[in-house]
Amino acid sequence: MTKNAKVSLVVIAVVVAVVAAFALLNRPDDTPPATAGGQPDVGTSAQLVRPDSHRLSGTADAKVTVVEFLDLECEACRAAFPGVEKLRAEYGDRVSFVMRYFPIPSHRNAELAARAVEAAGRQGKLELMYRAMYETQPTWGEKQEPQREAFVGFAQALGLDVTKFETDLDDPAVRERVRKDWDDGVALNVRGTPTFFVNGTMFQGNPTYEALKAVIDRELTK
Amino acid sequence: MNPTAFTTRLLPWVLTAGGAVGLVAAFVLTVEKTTLLKNPDYIPTCSIDPILSCGSIMRTAQAEVFGFPNPLLGIVGFAIVVTIGVVVLAGGSLPRWFWLGLQAGTLLGVVFVHWLIYQSLYVIGALCPYCMIVWAVTIPVFWYITVHNLGEGHLPAPRRLAALATGYHGVILTVWYAAIVLLVLQAFWSYWLSLL
To answer: Which residue of B has its CA nearest to A190?
Structure first.
């Protein structure tokens, strides 16, 4: 074997060994990324709630802020939705709930749904559209064909100006708005939906009503 | 074995194979891009999850640096690289100015690819598998042209440097690849761990 080949193999062996050692050393036991120090791709709290992020309830100075990265087409998000609604009703303004779009690419209509919610928001009916999306999810979710007509139908049912709604749906600014939420989620280590952050810490486990309530109560008494 | 003879024989194969692979990747990216333009809700075949995602990358401004989709550059550039590789395999001998032109062209290519790597890892925060294929072939194409030009004296360089590049061509390429692999691993470290 030539010296060139030998040295190349040594380089490869060293790199593989170093990477394997690192992977074994900090293999996470579900380390919450928000608290794991030194991880380069953990975002900042500024990325968690942007000035233009949609606050469904509570105010910016609430003691507890819950941020949810959600995909309107995801069944687990739909499963968490009633719990979130209940928590919002119970805590009122004491807890701030912020909704961020995180449409997973494999869900064909998730991004369009997010844009539909954003477009409805331009006519002041963001929350109604957000609810409508979850409530009707079984009728349009997991489909391969674009569900644009269905969403336009929702807009009509909600009494929106349909022409404006359709223009907004295609507005690059709306698309960009959804993508910015997505980018923040990726930067914050969001890898699936729904991902909740309670006061900046990523919530681990199944986001049931009880589990979220326990974390919120703990934060409220701090 | 004379190392210069080896890299000289290797070069046309690197150009032909690297150019062909790069051409296919650039072609697929162009097709995906047009499909995406026809239907903004289209999900490209290489969008697997939040990190491995062509779709989010193809929608960025960085994907059209010069005002048109980057892969068009790849289709033109890699087609030339394949052609030159085949010409050399066919026994064609090319003058110094031609090799220097190729050096300049691939230098631009390799610089552009590294800028795209930087954008992908640190600005966009996602990886596009077809784009990574382009990264992977542009580097050896540039490198083996450089080795050839150093060995043949087309590029002015001290003899020792030329001998070093020729004798350790594989080491330098390996270190180059390793550096990029490490950067990719580091930038998305927690994601890779989550796959384990």
So the answer is: B50
Q: Among all residues of chain A, which has the CA nearest to that of B122?
A: A41
Assigned token pair, A185: 């989620």
In a domain, A32, yes or no: no
Domains, in order of start, for chain B: 3-195 (1.20.1440.130)
Structure tokens at A3: 């010296």
The verdict on B170 touching A (C-beta cutoff 8 Å) is yes
Residue whose entry in the numeric block shows the structure tokens 């296919």: B24
CA separation, residue A92 to residues A65, A69, B103, B148 (Å): 12, 20, 66, 71
| Predicted confidence (pLDDT) per residue in B115-168, tens digit | 999 999 887 778 889 999 999 999 999 999 999 999 999 999 998 999 999 999
- Mean pLDDT calculated for residue range B86-99: 94
pLDDT > 90 fraction of chain A, expressed in percent and rounded = 60
Pairing state of beta strands A195-198 and A201-202? antiparallel
Q: How far apart are CA B153 and CA B99, in angstroms?
A: 11
Q: CA A181 to CA A202: how far, in whole Å?
A: 16
Domain count of the fold of chain A:
1
Instruction: Say how far residue A64 (Cα) sits from the centre of its chain.
Output: 18
- Domain containing residue A95: CATH number: 3.40.30.10
Q: A100 - beta bridge partners? A: A69
Cβ contacts from A onto B, under 8 A: 98
Alpha carbon distances (Å) from A131 to A85, A127, A140, A146: 9, 6, 14, 20
Residue A116 located in a structural domain: yes
Examine residue A192 and state whether it is found in any structural domain, yes or no: yes
Nearest CA in chain B to A27: B193
Q: Is A11 inside a domain boundary?
A: no
DSSP string, B98-137: HHHHHHHHHHHHHHHHHHHHHIIIIII--B-HHHHHHHHH
Which residues constitute the domain of residue A97? 45-220
Band (A130; pLDDT cuts 50, 70, 90) = very high
- Chain B, 52 to 71: residues with Cβ < 8 Å from chain A are 53, 55-56, 59
Q: Rounded CA gap, A182 and B57, in Å?
A: 12
The yes-or-no verdict on residue A33 having pLDDT over 50 is: no
CB contact (8 A) between residue A11 and residue B178: yes
Residue B68 in tokens? 């048109």
pLDDT of residue A34: 42
Question: Distance (Å, rounded) from C-alpha B185 to C-alpha B194?
Answer: 12
Looking at this predicted complex, what is its ipTM? 0.82
